Fold this protein.
Amino acid sequence: MSRRKTARPQDRSARPVLDPAGPCPCGLDASYADCCGRFHRGEAAAATAERLMRSRYSAFAVGDEAYLLATWHPGTRPARLGLDPRTRWTGLDVLATTDGGVFHQEGTVTFRAHYREGGRDAVLEEHSTFARVDGAWVYVEAV
């Protein structure tokens, strides 16, 4: 996901707090700790482009800017994101994937990311491209 916001002062108290034993924001049937949390903690790397995309969605949901930047292709990565702590990511629908498997070097994921901002529900639909850099999947850009 490439959602960029205008930089605002960080208000850490407004960030969502996830129960590690609670459901993962990415929508898979696992706890946050056992699903995307292990990627965010650096204990594992996403094996597919789709898993990386799901972990990046969860990183937006928990406000993990460091993970988002670390999993962004160095050729397209911004210096910083300036995530808005008032944005609440509320659901993810993966619509399609092309390649992006354990034996591929590139892949795409099309998804809808649901969020709430300023009291209104909204949807970000994106067709994202991913590539391997030094063996690890990274987000390249939205097409």
